């Protein structure tokens, strides 16, 4: 039991308050003993599960055995933090002790999922929510026509209420700059040297697509985001090594196949969609991906008439799964720590004026991009022939090349 | 959007005039709502950020070969090759590092205003006064006449002002003086999606670098910058802050913001999540139009080319000008950062391109 002094410490009080809010909100929604809601007409649409401010305040006052004023203060806090949202004056985040209408926020938008764990990491939390919003928006877009009007109105209200509480600040832009500043050749020296300044192309050779050992800066950049890791094909290779060890490569394989579909030729769409269905989505498929029933249903239905964005919902879902779970485990894994250790840290060049002149007179032609492209295609073909389970990305390119 | 708007369909007796009036009042309300949201200004948040040290950016290469104004250029993903197009009707593929001209192709019309390098490095696209955007496969043989294999992909009803490949060689995005932009399937020339909304010529487009990769931004003579969803063709966001033509739009590296350059002598910075302009880059001494912008790799620096022949380097966070890059002897028409951020290439009406680092 904590001493009285600790119990009055702000952090403890805030944590207690949060726990109390969460349990209160859950109890309030109980079918039998919670606050009585009803259907309400808002303009021309009927919204289900609507409560009045005075009912909420009365329930809380009774539950907490406190005065209506205290109950109003407490419930205003619930509105301010986004557990409950007003249907009418949506900018005024207060609980009014009258017939003003309110609704419970859908758990998707609850602030508490990461609140306790990330109390000091609000930025990460906001990013987390943003991605869920994108995912929701994608699914909403797809299911838009099927949705009934009241659902849409309710969802719009929920979403707007969420954003009023959780506006992502302009600080994100500053954060990006801070993360990347040491990687910006105009702000920090690139090692061993900037080819344009010294006429020596070591920097490009060290950072080629298929190096055995990447540089430390390159490996560091993979940790900035899943997007960075996947965008650098060398990083993607390393991620695949990790996934193979975990026997969980199917999510990335699906994501790659979906990319090939999205950016491929119009003519190849049907063939690719069929292959993807057979490999990842059909019941009993060899690389079956574990996505929620609703997304799976929508996707399979969409594959009846495949178009380049038919896998959007599933792909976003899979990407978010990788981003929130697999990516962080990769960064903590022996695979990543190993490559971090082995990564190269080139010494800075220190050319004399004579050497610089020599460099300028013997600039390396490098390898032509067309040759590099041909080499990549050969590698993909080899991988397609050799691998089991099936290398879907290679197969996708094969379909493209056949056309 | 409020529930009222979501609920009401077209009522009997509603005329175009009443709808227009409602649209105007909603627009006004949107602006009011935007203003009410208590966002801090970018430069306020950036007060604690350290200043950028002195930059020593020099011209490292001067690419001579065009016989008239260079209107556009684009880098190859190999970080050293680039393609440029000119009023002289020529499209040149260079190895910027060795200054070797690898291909020189003649187009049927002069004023090739747009060009782009394919992600694979195996082709280029270009277009202009011919109202078309064509894709030209490249070869390893410099003597081969690549232009002979040119394939028409995009067709507009006015000049092509900008083009870019998407994440693969197989799709092309184009924008035009006809006020529309469009997504094309390269192999078949099929129109995949068209985008309508601008009320005048579109002068520039840029594809979002974000992980979703499904949006792009355009800017034009109607002073608007519009953000589009490639899948639905919808205009999802719109910004009308400039006082004259927008000549160029470019995404911030994170994909959450973009910058624009305008004939009103300012460059502006828009945050997509906050849905508003967050910075204006201007100075009383800058009176000539800005024609082109690009960011450095971290997004800290904004390089902007102007009609007074200079390139200004702006501190994106603090809103101040850090330095100026002199060298061109006429307007700067295009600036582009190389894919790994090691250099900036500028194209100019002085018939040359310069590479700076």
UniProtKB/TrEMBL annotation, chain A:
CDD domains documented for this protein: DEP_RGS7-like
Record domain DEP: where: 31-106
Alphabetically ordered keywords of this record: Signal, Signal transduction inhibitor
InterPro entries: DEP_dom (IPR000591), GGL_sf (IPR036284), RGS (IPR016137), RGS6/7/9/11 (IPR047016), RGS6/7/9/11_DHEX_sf (IPR047017), RGS_DHEX (IPR040759), RGS_sf (IPR036305), RGS_subdomain_2 (IPR044926)
GO MF, any single term: GTPase activator activity
Signal peptide feature range: 1-28
Gene Ontology CC: cytoplasm; neuron projection; plasma membrane
Pfam families: DEP (PF00610), RGS (PF00615), RGS_DHEX (PF18148)
Keyword Endoplasmic reticulum: no
Domain RGS, first and last residues per copy: 225-340
GO-annotated biological processes: G protein-coupled receptor signaling pathway; intracellular signal transduction; negative regulation of signal transduction; regulation of G protein-coupled receptor signaling pathway
Source organism, top-level taxon: Eukaryota
Protein name in the entry: Regulator of G protein signaling 9a
Organism of origin: Amphiprion ocellaris
Higher taxonomy: Eukaryota, Metazoa, Chordata, Craniata, Vertebrata
UniProtKB/TrEMBL annotation, chain B:
UniProt keyword list: Coiled coil, Repeat, Transducer, WD repeat
Coiled-coil annotated spans: 16-43
Gene3D superfamilies: YVTN repeat-like/Quinoprotein amine dehydrogenase
Gene Ontology biological-process annotations: signal transduction
Domain of life of the organism encoding this protein: Eukaryota
Transmembrane domains' residue ranges: none
Family from the record: Belongs to the WD repeat G protein beta family.
The protein's name in its UniProt record: Guanine nucleotide binding protein (G protein), beta 5b
Organism: Amphiprion ocellaris (Clown anemonefish)
């Amino acid at each position: 039991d904590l001493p009285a002094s600790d119990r009055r410490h702000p952090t403890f009080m805030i944590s207690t308050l949060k726990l109390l809010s969460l349990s209160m909100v859950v109890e309030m929604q109980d079918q039998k003993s919670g606050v009585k809601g009803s259907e309400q007409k808002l303009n021309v649409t009927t919204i289900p599960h609507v409560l009045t401010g005075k009912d909420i305040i009365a329930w809380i006052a009774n539950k907490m055995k406190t005065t209506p004023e205290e109950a109003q203060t407490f419930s205003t806090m619930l509105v301010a933090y986004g557990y409950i949202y007003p249907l009418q004056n949506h900018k005024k985040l207060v609980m009014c002790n009258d017939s003003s209408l309110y609704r419970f926020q859908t758990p998707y938008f609850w602030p508490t999922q990461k609140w306790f764990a990330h109390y000091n990491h609000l930025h990460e939390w906001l990013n987390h929510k943003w991605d869920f919003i994108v995912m929701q928006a994608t699914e909403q877009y797809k299911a838009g026509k099927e949705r009934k009007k009241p659902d849409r109105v309710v969802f719009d209200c929920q979403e707007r209420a969420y954003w009023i509480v959780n506006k992502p600040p302009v600080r994100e832009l500053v954060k990006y700059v801070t993360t990347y500043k040491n990687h910006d050749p105009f702000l920090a020296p690139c090692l061993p040297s900037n080819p344009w300044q010294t006429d020596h192309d070591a920097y490009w050779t060290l950072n080629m697509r298929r190096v055995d050992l990447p540089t430390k800066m390159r490996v560091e950049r993979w940790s900035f985001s899943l997007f960075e890791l996947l965008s650098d094909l060398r990083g993607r290779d390393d991620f695949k090594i990790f996934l193979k060890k975990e026997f969980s490569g199917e999510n990335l394989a699906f994501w790659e196949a979906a990319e090939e579909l999205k950016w491929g030729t119009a003519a190849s769409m049907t063939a690719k969609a069929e292959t993807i269905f057979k490999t990842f989505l059909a019941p009993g498929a060899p690389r079956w991906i574990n996505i929620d029933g609703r997304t799976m249903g929508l996707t399979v239905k969409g594959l009846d008439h495949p178009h380049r964005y038919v896998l959007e919902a599933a792909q976003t879902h899979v990407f978010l799964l990788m981003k929130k779970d697999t990516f962080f485990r990769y960064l903590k894994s022996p695979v990543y720590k190993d490559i971090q250790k082995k990564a190269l840290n080139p010494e800075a060049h220190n050319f004399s004026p004579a050497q610089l002149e020599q460099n300028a007179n013997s600039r390396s032609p490098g390898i032509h991009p067309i040759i590099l492209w041909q080499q990549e295609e050969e590698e993909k073909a080899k991988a397609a022939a050799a691998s089991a389970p099936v290398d879907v990305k290679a197969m996708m390119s094969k379909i493209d090349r056949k056309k | 959007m409020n529930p009222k708007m979501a609920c009401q369909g077209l009522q009997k007796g509603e005329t175009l005039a009443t709808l227009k009036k409602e649209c105007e009042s909603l627009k006004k309300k949107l602006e009011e709502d935007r203003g009410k949201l208590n966002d801090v200004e970018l430069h306020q948040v950036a007060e604690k950020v350290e200043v950028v040290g002195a930059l020593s950016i020099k011209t490292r290469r001067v690419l001579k070969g065009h016989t008239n104004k260079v209107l556009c250029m684009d880098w190859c993903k190999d970080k050293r090759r680039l393609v440029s197009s000119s009023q002289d009707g020529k499209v040149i593929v260079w190895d910027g590092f060795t200054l070797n001209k690898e291909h020189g192709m003649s187009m049927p019309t002069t004023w090739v205003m747009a060009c782009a390098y394919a992600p694979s490095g195996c082709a280029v696209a270009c277009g202009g006064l011919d109202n078309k955007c064509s894709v030209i496969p490249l070869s390893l043989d410099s003597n081969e006449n690549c232009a002979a294999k040119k394939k028409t992909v995009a067709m507009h009803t006015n000049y092509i002002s900008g083009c870019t490949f998407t994440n693969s060689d197989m799709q092309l995005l184009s924008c035009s003086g006809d006020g529309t932009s469009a997504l094309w399937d390269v192999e078949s020339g099929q129109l995949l999606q068209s985008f309508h909304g601008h009320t005048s010529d579109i002068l520039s487009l840029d594809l979002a670098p974000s992980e979703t990769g499904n949006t792009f931004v355009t800017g034009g003579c109607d002073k608007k910058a519009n953000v589009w969803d490639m899948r639905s063709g919808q205009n999802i966001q719109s910004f009308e802050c400039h006082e004259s033509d927008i000549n160029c739009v470019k995404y911030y590296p994170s994909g959450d913001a973009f910058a624009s350059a305008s004939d009103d002598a300012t460059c502006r910075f828009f945050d997509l999540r906050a849905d508003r302009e967050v910075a204006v880059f201007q100075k009383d001494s800058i009176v000539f139009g800005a024609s082109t912008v690009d960011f450095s790799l971290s997004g800290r620096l904004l390089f902007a080319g102007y009609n007074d022949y200079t390139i200004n380097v702006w501190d994106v966070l603090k809103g101040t000008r850090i330095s100026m890059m002199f060298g061109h002897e006429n307007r700067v028409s295009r600036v582009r950062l190389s894919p790994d951020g090691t250099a900036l290439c500028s194209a100019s009406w002085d018939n040359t391109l310069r590479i700076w680092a």
